[in-house]
Amino acid sequence: xxxxxxxxxxxxxxxxxxxxxxxxxxxxxxxxxxxxxxxxxxxxxxxxxxxxxxxxxxxxxxxxxxxxxxxxxxx
Length: 75
Description:
Layout: E1 2-5, H1 18-38, E2 43-45, E3 52-53, E4 59-60, H2 63-74
Parallel strand pairs: 1-2
Antiparallel strand pairs: 3-4
Helix pairs in contact: 1-2
C-alpha cells in the first residue's frame, strides 16, 4: 500500500516559473500512481478539494488532474 500522496500548487509563482510548475502536479500524479500500480502497491491519493467539488454534485473542477490519476492507474 502506498499511503496518501499529493502535489500542491504554489499560488505565489509568476512569470517563467509558473508554466512548468502547473505541469508538475499533473506529471507527479500520473507518475506516482503508475509506479505504485506497476509495483503491486495500492495507491491512496490525498484529496485536497481542488479536483472534484463534493458539494456541487461531484462536478470535476480539474479534469487534467483527474485524468492524470486515471492514466497512471491504467497505462
